[in-house]
Amino acid sequence: MTSRQSTPPIVGVIGGGQLARMMAAPAGALGIHIRLLAESAHECATQVISDVVVGDFRDYETLRAFVSSCDVVTFDHEHVPNALLRRLASEGMEAKLQPGPNALQYAQEKVKMRELVAPELSPRWKQVADIDEARDFGFPCIAKSLIGGYDGKGVWRVESDSELSELLKHGGLLLEELVPFDAEISVLIARSPHGQAAVWAVTETIQENGICVQTVTPASHLSDEVAGKAQSIALTIAEQTGVVGVMAVEMFVVGERLLVNELAMRPHNSGHWSIEGAITSQFEQHLRAVLDLPLGATDMRARHVVMGNILGGDKADLHRAFLHLFARDPGLKVHLYGKEVRPGRKVGHVTLLGEDTKRLSARALHATEFFAGRAGEHDE
Ligand code: ADP
User: What residues does the ATP-grasp domain cover (predicted)?
Assistant: First the structure.
């Protein structure tokens, strides 16, 4: 008798963090098989994805074997060395890598991204190898490591020659003017190999000490015209880079001007609101895009959506917060990532849909503070 079981496509995901973990729910719904390349059997995505290869993504043979075993491969982070991806591409695996190395280089190397983006959309910038090259740039400025960095790590506000000399001991830097921004926004966009693109409403990201604490969608205080301009900048970058999957384009708003800050080529923290807040979430869209399927509608399910990041505090047991928070706020949606709680670490997020951004923000703040152990049961 012939088997009548349908064969699901296998999407390989390199990296076992919360982004891979959150791909599991839409993959399950669509009957897509996810295979994970995780650095250890303890990474948080391994709790919800059963097909796990434990191995080092910096090792070419490990990568090659993993990519060979999947129909398409995508990423939970941007740390896979570009040279290894190029080698895989040259060995006939280019079509499996989504996004591919050509696109990914712009998310991996900040100078490459700066060279790509139109000068009027970038802060003044300069790549410097030593203090002499930095002399006339001016202080205060922002210094960034050339590769890597997340959550404000690898980004420094620099006030003087001596501070900069100290940082330059560890290698070259990208210097940027200190942008006096009014707000930070993120435009989330998905693109498929066919070239279909879909963009979500612009999100405002609210940061504290370099970490995003809340997002508000659509971004408040942004005219329709500026929001449209932000979306069209993201579309242009998606086309120019040839990215496949979800990309977040982080930007500064300075009056009516927009300046591009950073690109991420994967689902992004600024898009978590879309799980409950949009017809198609960034995680489902990412899977559809990397499999070259038609993209889903990005319309919002409510007028406003606020997402609050749960940052680790001194309470190790996050689940103890459920009873109080669920009783207090039945509209609250909670996502915990199954990660060990460490102070300041992103360990989950909450989402609220509704009509009044201020109320939604206050409810999100209470929940995230309560998870972190900083709010009492009776706090407003
Ligand atoms: P990462 O995503 O690695 O944390 P970013 O480039 O997004 O690094 O920088 C982190 C934060 O630093 C930004 O969200 C912003 O608040 C601030 N920042 C970065 N570049 C500038 C700049 N040129 N001017 C002013 N602030 C900046």
Answer: 112-291
Instruction: Please tell me if the CB atom of residue 9 comes closer than 6 angstroms to any atom of ligand 1.
Output: no
Question: How far is the centre of ligand 1, averaged over its atoms, from the C-alpha of 109 (Å)?
Answer: 15
Identify the residue whose tokens are 């600024």: 270
Give the atom of ligand 1 at the shortest distance from the alpha carbon of 123: 23
Atom of ligand 1 nearest to the CA of 150: 3
What confidence score (pLDDT) does residue 311 get? 97
Q: Which amino acid is at 362?
A: A
The answer to whether the CB of 74 falls within 8 A of the CB of 11 is yes
Q: Is the CB of 148 under 6 A from ligand 1?
A: no
Q: What is the pLDDT of residues 29-69, one digit of tens each?
A: 999 999 999 999 999 999 999 999 999 999 999 999 999 99
Amino acid 208 reads E
Q: Over the stretch 184-227, which tens digit does the pLDDT of each residue have?
A: 999 999 999 999 999 999 999 999 988 999 999 999 989 999 99
Instruction: Check residue 221 and give its pLDDT.
Output: 84
Q: Indicate if 35 and 65 belong to the same structural domain.
A: yes
Residue nearest to atom 8 of ligand 1 (CA): 152
Q: Is the Cβ atom of 204 under 6 angstroms away from ligand 1?
A: no
Q: Residue 28 belongs to what domain range?
A: 10-102
Question: To the nearest whole percent, how much of the chain has pLDDT over 70?
Answer: 98
CB under 8 Å to 146, separation ≥6 — which residues? Answer: 109, 110, 111, 127, 171, 172, 173, 174
210 Cα: distance to centroid of ligand 1 (angstroms): 7
Domain limit, last residue, from 140, 159, 177: 177
CATH of the domain at 170: 3.30.1490.20
186 lines ligand 1 (CB under 6 A): no
Do the domain assignments include residue 116?
no
Atom of ligand 1 nearest to the CA of 144: 6
Kindly state whether residue 113 falls inside one of the protein's structural domains: no
Angle subtended by helix axes 18-30 and 282-290, to nearest 10: 70
